Protein backbone atom coordinates (compact mmCIF):
# COMPACT_ATOMS: atom_id res chain seq x y z
CA UNK A 1 0.00 0.00 0.00
CA UNK A 2 1.29 3.45 -0.90
CA UNK A 3 1.64 5.62 2.21
CA UNK A 4 0.32 9.19 2.22
CA UNK A 5 -0.55 11.78 4.86
CA UNK A 6 -3.23 13.37 2.71
CA UNK A 7 -6.82 12.31 3.40
CA UNK A 8 -8.61 13.63 0.30
CA UNK A 9 -8.92 16.28 -2.42
CA UNK A 10 -11.63 17.96 -4.50
CA UNK A 11 -12.29 16.00 -7.68
CA UNK A 12 -13.17 18.72 -10.20
CA UNK A 13 -15.79 18.29 -12.90
CA UNK A 14 -13.13 18.95 -15.53
CA UNK A 15 -11.26 15.83 -14.39
CA UNK A 16 -14.45 13.79 -14.82
CA UNK A 17 -15.21 15.29 -18.24
CA UNK A 18 -11.73 14.51 -19.54
CA UNK A 19 -11.76 11.03 -17.98
CA UNK A 20 -15.03 10.16 -19.74
CA UNK A 21 -13.56 11.01 -23.15
CA UNK A 22 -10.77 8.44 -22.82
CA UNK A 23 -10.63 4.78 -23.76
CA UNK A 24 -10.23 2.25 -20.93
CA UNK A 25 -6.41 1.99 -21.02
CA UNK A 26 -6.03 5.77 -21.16
CA UNK A 27 -8.61 6.20 -18.38
CA UNK A 28 -6.55 3.99 -16.10
CA UNK A 29 -3.28 5.77 -16.94
CA UNK A 30 -4.82 9.22 -16.40
CA UNK A 31 -6.57 8.41 -13.11
CA UNK A 32 -3.47 6.66 -11.69
CA UNK A 33 -1.35 9.69 -12.57
CA UNK A 34 -3.92 12.02 -10.99
CA UNK A 35 -4.09 10.03 -7.73
CA UNK A 36 -0.32 9.58 -7.46
CA UNK A 37 0.19 13.31 -7.89
CA UNK A 38 -2.56 14.32 -5.45
CA UNK A 39 -1.62 11.89 -2.70
CA UNK A 40 2.12 11.33 -3.22
CA UNK A 41 3.32 14.39 -5.13
CA UNK A 42 4.62 12.19 -7.94
CA UNK A 43 4.58 13.57 -11.47
CA UNK A 44 3.96 11.08 -14.32
CA UNK A 45 6.88 10.31 -16.62
CA UNK A 46 5.45 7.75 -19.04
CA UNK A 47 2.01 8.99 -20.13
CA UNK A 48 1.32 8.64 -23.84
CA UNK A 49 -1.33 9.53 -26.39
CA UNK A 50 -4.68 10.80 -25.17
CA UNK A 51 -3.83 10.12 -21.52
CA UNK A 52 -0.89 12.49 -21.84
CA UNK A 53 -3.06 15.10 -23.55
CA UNK A 54 -5.66 14.77 -20.78
CA UNK A 55 -2.95 15.29 -18.16
CA UNK A 56 -1.58 18.36 -19.94
CA UNK A 57 -5.05 19.90 -20.10
CA UNK A 58 -5.53 19.53 -16.32
CA UNK A 59 -2.01 19.88 -14.90
CA UNK A 60 -2.38 23.47 -13.70
CA UNK A 61 -5.47 22.60 -11.68
CA UNK A 62 -3.77 19.52 -10.26
CA UNK A 63 -0.56 21.37 -9.35
CA UNK A 64 -2.56 24.19 -7.74
CA UNK A 65 -4.45 21.73 -5.55
CA UNK A 66 -1.27 20.02 -4.39
CA UNK A 67 0.45 23.34 -3.66
CA UNK A 68 -2.63 24.58 -1.79
CA UNK A 69 -2.61 21.48 0.40
CA UNK A 70 1.11 21.78 1.14
CA UNK A 71 0.90 25.51 1.89
CA UNK A 72 -2.14 25.09 4.15
CA UNK A 73 -0.95 22.07 6.13
CA UNK A 74 2.80 22.53 6.03
CA UNK A 75 3.02 18.89 5.01
CA UNK A 76 5.31 18.21 2.08
CA UNK A 77 4.21 15.29 -0.06
CA UNK A 78 6.85 12.83 -1.23
CA UNK A 79 9.49 14.39 -3.51
CA UNK A 80 8.29 14.57 -7.11
CA UNK A 81 9.62 12.25 -9.78
CA UNK A 82 10.38 13.58 -13.25
CA UNK A 83 8.94 16.82 -14.48
CA UNK A 84 5.45 18.15 -14.78
CA UNK A 85 3.92 18.09 -18.28
CA UNK A 86 4.17 21.86 -18.26
CA UNK A 87 6.76 24.52 -19.09
CA UNK A 88 7.11 28.21 -18.37
CA UNK A 89 5.12 30.52 -20.59
CA UNK A 90 6.98 31.88 -23.61
CA UNK A 91 4.56 33.64 -26.01
CA UNK A 92 6.34 32.68 -29.23
CA UNK A 93 6.45 28.96 -28.50
CA UNK A 94 3.41 28.24 -26.38
CA UNK A 95 -0.32 28.59 -26.45
CA UNK A 96 -2.93 28.48 -23.74
CA UNK A 97 -5.47 25.76 -23.11
CA UNK A 98 -8.55 26.68 -21.12
CA UNK A 99 -9.15 24.40 -18.18
CA UNK A 100 -11.71 24.54 -15.39
CA UNK A 101 -11.17 25.04 -11.68
CA UNK A 102 -14.08 26.83 -10.04
CA UNK A 103 -14.12 29.07 -13.08
CA UNK A 104 -11.56 29.43 -15.85
CA UNK A 105 -7.87 28.91 -15.25
CA UNK A 106 -5.20 29.14 -17.91
CA UNK A 107 -2.89 26.22 -18.63
CA UNK A 108 -0.13 25.71 -21.18
CA UNK A 109 0.05 23.49 -24.26
CA UNK A 110 3.15 24.03 -26.36
CA UNK A 111 3.77 23.04 -30.00
CA UNK A 112 6.28 20.47 -28.73
CA UNK A 113 3.68 18.94 -26.44
CA UNK A 114 1.15 18.90 -29.28
CA UNK A 115 3.58 17.05 -31.55
CA UNK A 116 4.30 14.52 -28.81
CA UNK A 117 0.57 13.93 -28.30
CA UNK A 118 -0.06 13.82 -32.05
CA UNK A 119 2.65 11.23 -32.68
CA UNK A 120 1.62 9.04 -29.77
CA UNK A 121 -2.04 9.17 -30.80
CA UNK A 122 -1.35 8.62 -34.50
CA UNK A 123 0.88 5.63 -33.75
CA UNK A 124 -1.81 4.09 -31.56
CA UNK A 125 -4.84 4.79 -33.77
CA UNK A 126 -3.27 4.05 -37.16
CA UNK A 127 -1.17 1.16 -35.89
CA UNK A 128 1.98 2.45 -37.54
CA UNK A 129 4.87 4.68 -36.35
CA UNK A 130 4.47 8.46 -36.53
CA UNK A 131 7.32 10.96 -36.33
CA UNK A 132 5.92 14.40 -37.20
CA UNK A 133 8.44 16.87 -35.76
CA UNK A 134 7.68 20.27 -37.27
CA UNK A 135 4.98 22.92 -37.13
CA UNK A 136 5.12 25.91 -39.43
CA UNK A 137 4.34 29.40 -38.13
CA UNK A 138 0.89 29.03 -39.70
CA UNK A 139 0.37 25.69 -37.92
CA UNK A 140 1.35 27.30 -34.60
CA UNK A 141 -1.11 30.12 -35.17
CA UNK A 142 -3.86 27.60 -35.90
CA UNK A 143 -2.90 25.64 -32.76
CA UNK A 144 -3.29 28.80 -30.70
CA UNK A 145 -6.72 29.45 -32.20
CA UNK A 146 -7.90 25.91 -31.55
CA UNK A 147 -6.59 25.66 -27.99
CA UNK A 148 -8.30 28.92 -27.11
CA UNK A 149 -11.55 27.60 -28.57
CA UNK A 150 -11.66 23.91 -27.65
CA UNK A 151 -10.91 21.55 -24.76
CA UNK A 152 -8.64 18.52 -24.75
CA UNK A 153 -11.47 16.07 -25.30
CA UNK A 154 -12.44 17.96 -28.47
CA UNK A 155 -8.96 17.37 -29.86
CA UNK A 156 -9.30 13.68 -29.08
CA UNK A 157 -12.68 13.38 -30.79
CA UNK A 158 -11.61 15.34 -33.88
CA UNK A 159 -8.45 13.26 -34.24
CA UNK A 160 -10.38 10.02 -33.81
CA UNK A 161 -12.70 11.02 -36.65
CA UNK A 162 -9.78 12.13 -38.81
CA UNK A 163 -8.19 8.68 -38.41
CA UNK A 164 -11.54 7.10 -39.37
CA UNK A 165 -11.90 9.20 -42.53
CA UNK A 166 -11.43 7.34 -45.84
CA UNK A 167 -10.17 10.33 -47.82
CA UNK A 168 -7.69 11.38 -45.13
CA UNK A 169 -6.27 7.86 -44.95
CA UNK A 170 -5.99 7.41 -48.71
CA UNK A 171 -4.56 10.91 -49.24
CA UNK A 172 -2.05 10.61 -46.39
CA UNK A 173 -3.56 13.70 -44.76
CA UNK A 174 -3.45 12.54 -41.15
CA UNK A 175 -0.80 15.16 -40.52
CA UNK A 176 -0.61 18.25 -38.28
CA UNK A 177 -0.93 20.69 -41.18
CA UNK A 178 -4.31 19.24 -42.22
CA UNK A 179 -5.60 18.56 -38.72
CA UNK A 180 -4.84 22.04 -37.33
CA UNK A 181 -6.56 23.99 -40.09
CA UNK A 182 -9.63 25.33 -38.22
CA UNK A 183 -12.19 24.48 -40.90
CA UNK A 184 -10.86 20.91 -41.07
CA UNK A 185 -10.78 20.56 -37.29
CA UNK A 186 -14.37 21.83 -37.04
CA UNK A 187 -15.49 19.37 -39.72
CA UNK A 188 -13.97 16.35 -38.00
CA UNK A 189 -15.24 17.49 -34.60
CA UNK A 190 -18.84 17.65 -35.87
CA UNK A 191 -18.82 14.15 -37.38
CA UNK A 192 -20.63 11.50 -35.36
CA UNK A 193 -17.98 9.45 -33.62
CA UNK A 194 -18.02 5.78 -34.63
CA UNK A 195 -15.87 2.86 -33.47
CA UNK A 196 -12.34 3.20 -34.78
CA UNK A 197 -11.58 1.04 -37.79
CA UNK A 198 -8.46 -1.06 -37.53
CA UNK A 199 -5.88 -1.11 -40.31
CA UNK A 200 -7.11 -4.56 -41.36
CA UNK A 201 -10.72 -3.37 -41.50
CA UNK A 202 -9.75 -0.41 -43.68
CA UNK A 203 -7.92 -2.68 -46.11
CA UNK A 204 -10.88 -5.09 -46.19
CA UNK A 205 -13.11 -2.17 -47.14
CA UNK A 206 -10.87 -1.43 -50.11
CA UNK A 207 -9.18 1.67 -48.75
CA UNK A 208 -5.99 2.47 -50.65
CA UNK A 209 -3.70 2.87 -47.64
Runs with pLDDT <50, length 5+? 80-108
Beta-strand residue percentage:
5-15%
Q: What would the principal axes of the Cα set say about the shape? A: elongated
**Protein structure class:** mainly alpha
Number of domains: 1
SSE order: HHHEEHHHHHHH
Distance between the termini: 48 Å
What is the average per-residue confidence, as pLDDT, rounded to a whole number? 82
Give the helix level as a range of percent. Answer: 55-70%
Chain oligomer state: single chain
Q: In DSSP terms, counting alpha (H) and pi (I) runs of 4 or more, how many helices?
A: 10
Strand order of the largest sheet: 1-2
Largest sheet: 2 strands, antiparallel
How many strands appear in the DSSP assignment?
2
Gyration radius, in Å: 18 Å
Amino acid sequence: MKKTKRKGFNFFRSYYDVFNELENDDKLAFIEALLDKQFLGINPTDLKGLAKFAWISQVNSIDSQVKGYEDKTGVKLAPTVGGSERVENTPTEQVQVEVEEKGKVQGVFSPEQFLSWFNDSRTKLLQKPSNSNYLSSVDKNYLEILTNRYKGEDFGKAFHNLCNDKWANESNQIIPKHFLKPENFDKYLQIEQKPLLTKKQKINRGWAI
